[in-house]
Amino acid sequence: xxxxxxxxxxxxxxxxxxxxxxxxxxxxxxxxxxxxxxxxxxxxxxxxxxxxxxxxxxxxxxxxxxxxxxxxxxxxxxxxxxxxxxxxxxxxxxxxxxxxxxxxxxxxxxxxxxxxxxxxxxxxxxxxxxxxxxxxxxxxxxxxxxxxxxxxxxxxxxxxxxxxxxxxxxxxxxxxxxxxxxxxxxxxxxxxxxxxxxxxxxxxxxxxxxxxxxxxxxxxxxxxxxxxxxxxxxxxxxxxxxxxxxxxxxxxxxxxxxxxxxxx
Length: 264
Fold this sequence. Notes:
- This protein is of the alpha/beta class.
- Helices cover 31% and strands 22% of the residues.
- Helix 7 packs antiparallel against helix 8.
- It is globular and about 50 Å long.
């Protein structure tokens, strides 16, 4: 989930390193009460406020939850790319009837999330798997089984999503249930935006995105079947999400409205 360089005032959170060979090492820094995850570079791969370990700290990560406007009670949420486990923990704790799967290739990330970011152990509802995201979405056993797919796949260089081909997005589409929705973060060199949006538009029935947030992150919503955008209903749902989960959902609806106006 890389998105920005940390402040020069950030200090190492501990001497602990998670550096199983064959994968980028996972390290942390800490600044003003926030712990940041890194993969051996200054790029931030995720964050956690120590006083609120189960909240979502970063704005663009909060926006990855905007599928809540369309899916109130998902049976199965899948996260591709664990980051600091913010989305995985939030879904696990706040959606007690939902099964949560996270797919992460780097064992160092899984280990540091369990040790320093409060990721719970696997149980009947939580399944954190060490595997390649492409293998997961291509597996026919997963097709049609996912109500919400959250995609945030970056390596230590943070130049763009590590998986961004039409084949990948087709496989993501195939994993979704009939009314499934995908949120994905597009960040990196400028050509990545158009490349990813075009690849998604080839396979999804509807693709919308919100205005850019800090550090050039753009969060995209992709629907297996195009929803009816009833803004009075969406604002009503946004109010309920704010009350129940303390997420700034009204700003998401404002963003969707502004996107629609731009398309006209």
